[in-house]
Design goal:
The complex is a heterodimer of chains A (1007) and B (529).
Chain A (H helix, E strand, L loop, with lengths): L17 H5 L2 E3 L5 E3 L7 E5 L22 E4 L9 E4 L2 E2 L7 E4 L2 E3 L11 E7 L2 H4 L10 E6 L8 E16 L41 E2 L16 E2 L7 H5 L3 E13 L3 E13 L6 E14 L4 E14 L12 H8 L9 H4 L22 H7 L1 E18 L4 E22 L10 E26 L2 E26 L10 E27 L2 E12 L8 E11 L1 H4 L8 E15 L2 E5 L14 E6 L7 E2 L11 E2 L2 E2 L7 E14 L4 E12 L2 E6 L8 E6 L1 E16 L8 E17 L6 E3 L12 E3 L6 E4 L11 E2 L12 E5 L4 E11 L2 E11 L2 E3 L1 H8 L19 H9 L5 E2 L3 E5 L18 E4 L3 E2 L1 H8 L7 E3 L2 E12 L11 E14 L24 E12 L1
Parallel strand pairs in A: 7-10, 30-34, 40-46
Antiparallel strand pairs in A: 1-2, 3-9, 4-5, 5-6, 7-8, 9-10, 11-14, 11-52, 12-13, 14-15, 15-16, 16-17, 17-18, 18-19, 19-20, 20-21, 21-22, 22-23, 23-24, 24-25, 25-31, 26-27, 28-29, 31-32, 32-35, 33-34, 35-36, 36-42, 37-38, 39-41, 42-43, 43-50, 44-49, 45-48, 46-47, 50-51, 51-52
Chain B lengths: L1 H16 L20 H12 L5 H6 L3 E3 L18 H16 L7 H21 L2 E2 L13 E2 L1 H25 L14 H18 L11 H10 L14 E3 L15 H4 L3 E3 L1 H9 L4 H5 L4 H5 L19 H7 L18 H4 L8 E4 L1 H13 L7 H15 L5 E8 L11 E8 L1 H6 L10 H14 L7 H9 L25 H6 L1 H12 L14
Antiparallel strand pairs in B: 1-5, 2-3, 4-6, 7-8
Classes of the chains: A mainly beta (1007), B mainly alpha (529).
Chain lengths: 1007, 529
Amino acid sequence: MAVASNSAYAQVTTTDSDTANVGEVVVTALGIKKDKKKLGFAVSEIKGESLVKARETNVLDNMVGKVAGLTIGQSAELLGNSQVVLRGSDIRRGQSVLYVVDGIPINSDAYNLSPDDIDKVTVLMGPAAAALYGYRGQNGAIVITTKKGTKGGVSVDFNSSTMIENGFLTIPKVQDEYGPGDHGNYSFVDGLGGGNNDGDYDVWGPKLNGQLLAQYDSPIDPVTGKPIPTPFVARGKNNLERFLQPGILNTNNFSIASSTDKVDIRFSFSNLNQRGIVPNTGLSSNTFNISNTVRFSDRFRMNATVNYNRQATDNINDVVYGPNSLIYSLVIWQGADWDVMSDDIRGIWQPGKEGVQSIHSEYKRYQNPWFVAYKWLRGHYKNDLYGYTSFDYDITKDLNLMVRTSATTYDVLRTEKMPFSAHPYGREENRGDYREDRRAMFEMNNEFLFNYTKKRGELDIHASLGGNRRDFNYTSSWTTTDYLNVPEVYNFANSANPVRSFNFNSSMAVNSLYALADIGYKYIFVNLGARMDQLSTMPSDNNSFVYPSASLSFLPTELFTKLKSKTLNFWKFRASFAQVKGGLTTPLVSQAGSTLGYGSNYSSPYDGPAYVNAGIYNTPLSYNGKPSANYTNVLPNASLAPFERVDFEFGTEVRMFKNRLSVDATYYVYNDGPGIFSRTVSEATGYTNQVVNGIETQRKGWEVSFKGDVIKARKEGAFAWNSMLNLSRYREFLTAVYGDVNEISANYFVSDNSSNRFLKVGDRIDALYTNGFARDKEGKLINDAGGRPIVLPKGQFQGYTLPDLVIGFYNQFTYKNFTVGLQFDGRIGGLVVNQIQRQTFRGGRHIETVQDNLTDANGNSMANAREADTRGEKTWLGEGVQVASGSIKYDPITGEITNYDELTFKSNETQTYLQDYVSRYYGQFESNIMKKDYMKLRELTITYNIPASLMGKTFKGASISLVGRNLIYFAKGLNDLDLDQFPGMTGYSALQSPTMRRYGVNINLTF
Amino acid sequence: MKKIIFAIAAAVTLVVSMNSCSVDGLDKDPNRPTQVTPDLVLNGICFSINQRPWGGDARTCQYNLCNYNYYGNNEYNWGGASWSFTTLKNVIKMEEEAKRVGNPDVNPYSALGKFFRAYLYYQMTMLTGDLPMSEALKTDNFLPKYDSQKEVFKQVLAWLEEANAEMTELSNQGKMAFNGDIYFNNNLMAWQKLNNTFTLRVLMSLSNKESDADLNVKGKFAAIVSNPAKYPMYNSNSDNMQFVYNSTLNKYPVSPDNYGFDALRYNMSSTNLYALTYLKDPRVFIIAEPSGAKLKAGSGYTDFASFVGADANQDLADMSTRMQVSNGGDFLNGEYSLYNRYRWYRNFVAEPCIQVGYSEMCFNIAEAAHRGWISESASDWYTKGIKASMQFYGINNGPVDVYAFKNGGSPTNSSDYIKNTYNFDEAAYFNQNNVKYAGTGNLGLQQIITQKYLSFFQNSGLEGYFNYRRTGFPTFSANGPGTGNSGKIPLRYQYPTSERTNNQASWKAAVDAQFGGQDDINAVMWILK
């Protein structure tokens, strides 16, 4: 195998030869390879080499910015699921992209795929490309072609990267001048609320001025038994920064491949070890991949591939809002009055109470981060396997039959060991718990496909007829103790109250038949397809359905050869149409049984039955653990029809200046619906919802990709510069709801929006409606009699959440044996509510509360007002007015003020405490809305290919690279939130771990 | 070649034989039942109708107030009510399942079903006014029209009458067996007493309509009170419908679990404590702690003057800073009284939450006598009601233990409480002018309703507010920044927001008919007119 090509992008590299380009082959649905010029729809490709240098834990995250229309919101958490948005199909909306390996669909979150095994990734952008996978492909597909044994004897490849995560891109900015408490009052007694604001506190306490106060570690007076006050100082400045450690990501791959006349074979082993930035967290992932091709005869071939992946970790961090979260304690609700690196805190337990009682500066709500990291453990152990065998037989010269069977399966165990004195939401007794979440998924696809190919002169005919049977089975259980008897024994037999156990099992099957035909003539290519599915999840009267697709590719430069010139080398138009149907499945699954009241809810890949349309009883344990039954509040619907999506896509591709510049542009329209949704009904029916067909939206978007050789190498080894710019954007509008209902709650599409406002037909669905303030006609805040802004009773329109433009900009420079890759990407436009800002303000921790940047109506700064708070003086005079006469009336639908003519206003004259003002003002989402604009220097790789002259006979090739990811983050504001994580319509942030720079070395050797 | 064909044939056969082609039956959820026995449904209904103590209802009734703005405030800026139609659907399902397993038309579940209908429709109409009823709970009518509040009350009273008749019939037949009860241990006769005791509550809520001939409020009230053989009623606290808490699976909402969150953040309200201290009522010692500021100023642990509630209408910023005031190391912080830690936070042993209580029944009969509906002694029933409430708190004539929390102590440690004794002279208490029933004037009514309000502390959901709304007693604190709503205590909840979207024409017709087109929390519903 040759050293990885210098060029990361197949389409970036262009040659002088037209034919070489136009003859480019891409892999499309069902693994059928097609000449790219014949395609009536958009596809994009990423070469495997571009995924193996500046590594990510999940290969998906390496694809960010590389394909116009593919947006990835990278999770900052270990084993976190990145948010994939492909042409607006967003996993957060239940619209998941299908993963396909060598033509077979796999049920995966991509953590089981090693980039070292990837030859190339083809992104089939829309359903037009993926319609042949049925409803599973409606949101597009990421089609992976794995590496195979290659001709030329034995080839051994070794690829190794070590990267360090160090240096914060984003981290909350907090004040370390004031300690915990309320209106300047604090003293410690038991940390449980027995003292003066010493439990479940805010950080609105006294200034850390060295005054004497009883604190958690104050010595106890042996006579009185009371703590002897000690100086109250900022001993815990930058607690979070000091607690975190540099992360390490180490990956190694070894592969050996060979090929003979009869057999191609490749074996690969990939190993990934990650150390998290939170102490005692990490991940190890090992992947074995074996692929074989056997040519039994000229006409009969077999392919077989098995991929096994094992992920294991004894502890991953849980950042979700609550006492389990590091950010919750260290950033939002606790101050700098205690030192996270002090010996007692690092000692985890109170002396003499090992295993039972952790030591901390507060005991009711917050937790010692070392205790959480080393004793409160969340394990993840997953076996993930996919494999297939396919037989190809050429029945005649033109007719071929392929029979293939494939399986994809995983089992996962997630454990939680919660020690005594851990007290997340809802578990207040501090007596520990143990939980196991077990899931097993098995999916099998058996298929056949007849291919007929005929070439008559310039006329090309290709026809396929195939069928597929998909069998799916899922079993899961979730078991938990109800407190423990003996500390640190994590076994169900150790449960204090009866063990609680839940299970959820499901099965489904799909029968499919499909036919497609390609007819091509020189410059025009037509593709027609049809698919019939029988889907077991739908009511039996309505479970079979047929849907068509069609596409067209037209090459004006081939028809009118005069058009071809030195300037215009190639020109293509394309158009396609596809319909997709399906229903009552869900892409992800959560744990069986009820969810806990805290922490993250792990979602694993599923694509199975949702059982939302079922007339069933829920049978929870109610009073004193006795069984009860409640009939569902969702009225089932026996005549439910499958959902529909109809898509149109138009595109053009132009290559100019001896193919030095190519432009590929696509415009698409997706008409979604009627879908299947749970409409709200009058509660007076006894039900809250009914499953119906409804909700239609129209999504319109475009993608443009420019690729060019900015500077072309004049000769071998001379300086060259290739560049690629990807731009995309989309909008989505509500076009129908249900029957004569023409509005739907604003939180239907953007969750966390105000539910009491409604989108109407014709509205953009990404509108942000949050609670907001009452204002006078000039827009000044109206304050209540206490001097705090009045909040309107209904949510207010604040703007839109979708970005205006998604940008990816890649550059590659080569000179002699050096190659430099440089990628910037980011997004412009769209709004998000910054929850980190909101909560750090409310908790009194936001850095602005001790600075002079924000001032009141008198020019009094927050810093001054905050100090006055601690003296019991109300000095903050909020901007705006108060009602002088009249009483405000609100519109019952919009919540806006309706009676300005009855109201008179005066300037606000009521001063209040900064704490109370901030709690009101920043408690509202409206005050925490920020633009999602950001760019990142995503990737920088500097590769030196060691010249053959320097290598001995042993090596066929070798390269060494300095690599970096996420090196610079460009955004306005405090960089307290990484906006990368909120693609698509996400309008509300959550807590996140700080994001880090990652850099290191990659070595690649080929023997 | 033959080998190859054989291989292909084998592969195809294998693939085909591994699968059947059927997809039948896989649309059914294998994890959850479609049929259950009626007792399971009854258990669920019993659990859902439970009105929990503390929480939002206690603030609405001005028993406690929140002084911590992160947790909430004391403003009456109400939105939509919470209805109980989904529970009523389960009532229907319970009746269906009872029939399915072979019960006759009249069976314990059918009788209980009528009571639950009455119980829940009463709750809902008290919150909002007119309700969908004749067209409600049907799966073929998604736009049920609303029936007037008067029709709802007529139907509620009819259901209660039918439930009583069915229970009597079942008793006569000896067919009283059922399961799933969490209130009365499957004793249908106890439910019958509840049914009739609850009927008195419903009738009293119609006091403004006492002369309405259709409803015949007075006549029905008299008929029940005068005929205990036909209408068995409560005889003591032991008949109470109450939700019993325990220390493991059903913990009282005020317990050591939430001590660090709530104990200091929800202080007592003056509406409640003023009435108790004005009446020199020892119940104040049980439920509340003396204010640290008062103790520091020299007031004693058993002085009524030491118990101070906050006015709900004050600015929340002020209330919270007044609760932060330091009173030195010997006394608790703050100016206002808190929930008594000895009773509420010392351990998980908790009082039950009375849903429909004997003391309430006594006050209802007293009020009916006061109003001249019946010829019973208002004074006697009034006194019985007070004594029943005292009994709930374990207060008898003689010494009453009064516990106050030591500053800096641990609430679960019994030695961290200061114990004092108050000598309760019951006769002296009842002889006070403020307590002794003042006769048929307005003061007598005020006494009855105020005592009823005091007995509802931590009990009976929103009844304290409903009675205030009906009579104006006791005076609620309003008209300040703390209570919002332009200085008014609202008179109703809005309809659930989903009605405006999902049942718009019916909702609008109801709002037009009752409130001139505005679904307004300050509008006056029919029973209050």
